[in-house]
Amino acid sequence: MDEVHSPATSDATDRSLFILLPPSVNDMTLGLSNAELSTGRQHLLDLMVKLLDTGVQAYVDIPQIAVIGSQSAGKSSLIEAIAGITLPRASGTCTRCPTECQLRTASSPWTCTVVLRCTKDLHGEVMGEPLMIPFGSPIMSKDKVEERIRRAQRAILDPSTNYKKFLDGDDEDPPRPETRFSTNCVSLQISGIGVANLSFCDLPGLIASVSGGHTGDIDLVKKNLVSSYISSPSCIILLTIACKSDFEVQGAHWLAKEYDPAGKRTIGVLTKPDRIPAGEESRWLSFIHNKEEPLEHGWFCVKQPSSNELKKGITWHEARENETRFFSTTSPWRDLTRLTRSISGHPILLTGQVRCSRA
């Protein structure tokens, strides 16, 4: 797939930043802002998906984008902005297995197919070939995706129960799932007009503390789930950091740095800039200027809907409009140079930068 371009290194790159910014939020399409930018990647993406379906990733590194972050870092909202769908939300840990999103452009109407991709059997042993289980019929309406994902995750966590019970049964969470986390994943295959070609994997958030005696969950998520992805030298790490918390206590950064110490394949995304305590803005701006914890491909900043806005059912376009308004009217973001402002918010992040490099 295409190489990742540095956000501010050469004249050609600088010019591309301005070209990639859409003239208005109303012109954006769901998923990546401009599907034409990724048409050349479609054949490579199709090949990568076929390779994943064979299970060859257990023996050969396949380029992937992995989205990582601590709990409540805004990872789900970032995924929703990229994919144009709604993910399940709950207090504490909600994502308990990898969620793979395969986006591709098509001339047909928007469609989402949910598949259970099982690489391990009931005993936790790696299978020679992944078991691909279509989880229900294709979804034609975006407002039905969240429930289907929630049900699919339940089926992944209770592998000895027939998956149809979770697909067609009531919408109640089982009291005690067989497993608290799983490396088997929920695969979302999304296609349609205005959806660009991209594949990435959303991983469970890193846990800082647990209750109820589940102390093993901390290492389980860190080692068995997140590290198993980002340790691959061909994995692009999309690192989410919440501005509402001290940078040093967010374990996702230290884990990314462990496997990518030079920052060559990590893309940083700051979330929740509206939650920065008064007087601490300059610290976070140093990331945007790539002066603190510099990364080869730089840092970005996004503004996501608040909890109240989500409860009220804010739309994707309304969220993007609010985001644009925030960065253009709120200090200190509005005072940045045009080049720096262009890497604040989703337009530039979603059109020009999140690209998997050649391995």
Describe the model:
With 359 residues, this protein is an alpha/beta fold. The protein has one domain: P-loop containing nucleotide triphosphate hydrolases (Rossmann fold), CATH 3.40.50. 32% of the residues lie in helices and 17% in strands. The protein has twelve helices and nine strands. A nine-stranded mixed beta sheet has the order 4-3-5-2-6-1-7-8-9, with helices on both faces. It comes from Hohenbuehelia grisea.
Q: Which SSEs are present, and which pair or pack?
A:
Layout: H1 11-20, H2 42-54, E1 64-69, H3 75-83, E2 99-105, E3 111-120, E4 126-134, H4 145-157, H5 163-168, E5 185-192, E6 198-202, H6 216-230, E7 235-242, H7 251-259, E8 266-271, H8 281-288, E9 299-301, H9 307-311, H10 316-329, H11 338-341, H12 346-353
Parallel strand pairs: 1-6, 1-7, 2-5, 7-8, 8-9
Antiparallel strand pairs: 2-6, 3-4, 3-5
